[in-house]
């Protein structure tokens, strides 16, 4: 008799279990939450290059507007691995006994890699109505979600210019939705990331006012999260996943040159991004300012602490859970040790 096909059952925890005739578990899928931006490149690369498969893992991706909206799914275990900005919801979840962990770098604004920018509507800038952040009082400023570190960096930038977060009218829109909002003048400004930045520049509806590497060098825009269920129920897979991820981060880093995806691996990375991200035009990916990622997955703790302070000052968290309570770098340390020191690939290799 021909062998019967395996039956895949999707569990509430977000794990697809392959079950044979004997009922024994034969494979497990991991569910990864993403926002679908170019900053999710390492997660996509690890899949496309077979790094997850090398570790005996199979993944599926679930799209969210922001990491803040991902936190409940991480807490419940519907999503095993998440990606995006830190948020007040993260600290409040941990305070309620749901130990979600930040486990790796995913995107930072290193000098020359300011992939995140504060954008201003073109007509406001060209007319002289808005010349700098000092003119932001009363403006409608879009961010992807309420209660995340984007709010903190906007506040930080405003404070440097004599204003604060309370002086603006915040609007919460996913990055792709900001494109239409600029076009119909529903917003005046936004904090956004590539590739939305480049798409807005291409359309001409908004211009860069300042990049975040100029505001707060190495600002930690996005991180990788592990759900408590993933850590508890699949500790070996949590370690294996990180080996695949760090390998993908290094592949991505090899593709970087002068702030762009223009290094030795550029063609492969751009092909993967056009397949997985919400921008399908390779020319946009070549034009974007790319995010930096530490090749060992290390985090920029000062920027996490700055965001934590904003959440506390605005009474979104009570402060009982600190940054150190939500960070666990043991996975990236183990992965980096297993892979050995990073040596950037040269164009001649």
Which keywords apply here?
single chain, 349 residues, alpha+beta, 5-stranded mixed β-sheet, 4-stranded mixed β-sheet, disordered N terminus
Explained architecture:
There is one protein chain. The protein is an alpha+beta fold and 349 residues long. The protein contains 16 helices and 14 strands. The chain has helices spanning 41-48, 51-54, 71-76, 88-95, 122-126, 149-159, 175-183, 196-203, 212-215, 228-233, 235-254, 266-276, 282-287, 301-313, 323-326, 330-339, and strands at residues 7-10, 16-19, 25-34, 58-63, 81-84, 101-109, 116-121, 140-143, 169-172, 189-193, 206-211, 219-226, 256-257, 260-261. The chain has a five-stranded mixed β-sheet, sandwiched between helices. Strand 8, helix 6 (149-159) and strand 9 (169-172) form a beta-alpha-beta unit. The N and C termini lie far apart (50 Å). Residues 1-27 have low confidence and may be disordered.
Structure summarized in a few sentences:
The chain is α+β, with helices and mostly antiparallel strands and 349 residues long.
Helix-strand string: EEEHHEHEHEEHEHEHEHEHEHHEEHHHHH
Going by helix content, strand content and strand pairing, the class is alpha+beta
Looking at the structure, what is the overall shape? Answer: globular
* Cα-to-Cα separation, first versus last residue: 50 Å
Classify the oligomer: single chain
Q: Determine the fraction of residues in helical runs and give it as a percent range.
A: 25-40%
Ranges where pLDDT stays below 50 over 5 or more residues in a row are 1-27
Major beta-sheet overview: 5 strands, mixed
Computed CA radius of gyration, to the nearest angstrom: 20 Å
Content of β-strand: 15-25%
Overall pLDDT: 90
Strands side by side in the biggest sheet: 9-8-10-7-11
What's the β-strand tally? 14
Count of alpha and pi helical runs:
16
